Amino acid sequence: MVPAVRGNAGGLRSEKAAEHRCAVRGYLSTALEHGLDVMTVLRDALLGGLRTPPPPVTA
Question: Which superkingdom (predicted)?
């Protein structure tokens, strides 16, 4: 078994769980930066409708 990342109550129990948490947090952070409603984006992602950010604007 992989050693615990955080051992407190409700904490992450494995490195894989920590990686998943960071991926979700990054996804929601990006949605917020693009002015999207985080709860709507989270709901859509759970229902299979992942969003991708728009391509960068070149000047």
Answer: Bacteria
pLDDT digits (tens), the chain, 59 positions: 555 555 556 666 788 888 888 999 998 998 888 888 999 999 998 998 887 767 777 86
Tokens 């407190």 map to which residue? 8
Q: Is residue 42 included in any domain, yes or no?
A: yes
Using the structure block, give the residue that is written with the tokens 């002015």. 35
Q: Which residue has the tokens 């929601």?
A: 28
Please tell me whether the overall predicted TM-score, pTM, comes out greater than 0.70 for this model.
Answer: no
**51 belongs to a structural domain:** no
Sort residue 3 into left (φ over 0), alpha (ψ -120 to 50) or beta: beta
